[in-house]
Amino acid sequence: MAESAHSRIFRDGLLDQQVCLVSGAGSGLGRETALELARLGAAVVGCGRREEPLVETAGLAAGLAGSFETYASMEQVLAHEEWPEDERPGTAAYLCGTLPDEAAREPARASAAVRQHIVEFLQYRAIDLWPHAFDSEGRFQWNLLAGGGNAEGPPRLESQYWTANVDPSDRYVQSLPGSLGHRLQANEAGYDNLFLAGDYVRTNIDLATMEGANESGRAAVNALLDAAGAKAAPASMYTLYQPPEAEPFKEIDRQRYRAGQPNLFDTP
Hints:
This protein is mainly α. The chain has three domains: about 1-65, no CATH class; about 70-160, no CATH class; about 170-265, no CATH class. About 30% of the residues lie in helices and about 5% in strands. The protein contains six helices and four strands; from the N terminus they run E-H-E-H-E-E-H-H-H-H. The protein has helices at about 30-40, 50-60, 100-105, 105-125, 210-230, 245-260, and strands at about 20-25, 45, 70-75, 95. The protein has a two-stranded parallel ribbon with strand order 1-2. Helix 1 (about 30-40) runs parallel beside helix 2 (about 50-60). The radius of gyration is 24 Å and the shape is globular. The chain starts with 18 loop residues before the first strand and ends in a 10-residue tail after the last helix.
């Protein structure tokens, strides 16, 4: 069973930026104490007699990432989906969050962790977004989930879709300093008749964005047309617009970066 990502007693973030040492963190009360401190935001240092239980505790703590950092209302897609009239949803919500590397190494545990995060989001966090989805006692009304049939409570979640992105090709590609040169262009796969498209491909937009993925798709089409010697018109490509008004601020940022100073937006 996945561990709870939030304390049921104390407020979230109570121990942010604090370091806690827990003796006997490999089992029993010591493990539960370590996990509770981790839920509260502390960096936990566990010690014990045997390494294996401590590693297991660390793995459980790694799965305690915050439920979801991103929410998007996607009601517009429902018009393009087929639903039974008595199960047609009123809206659709997309939730995304981070998954620690330690949790992602085991697909089954990662999936269980994501499911548990969904349960806790609906029980404890969703009231800020959907206050009318909760009863007078502050409990989430599980019967509002579409497609659940006769199921009651959290089991209705089985009708929903969730996934843990554990495969390397599924995971978010960060744009770290110096990493642009390692990105391959659409025609640089190194294999005949294989062309690359995705937010990890080198484009004019060095970010994991829908715009960058779209540009890479058009670049892949053009590479395919070129390789086939086709006479069809290539897909339109666009140069990323760089507003000149931003150049003075970018130069300041470059100077601060070279001096080892943070971006102005990251200073108090």
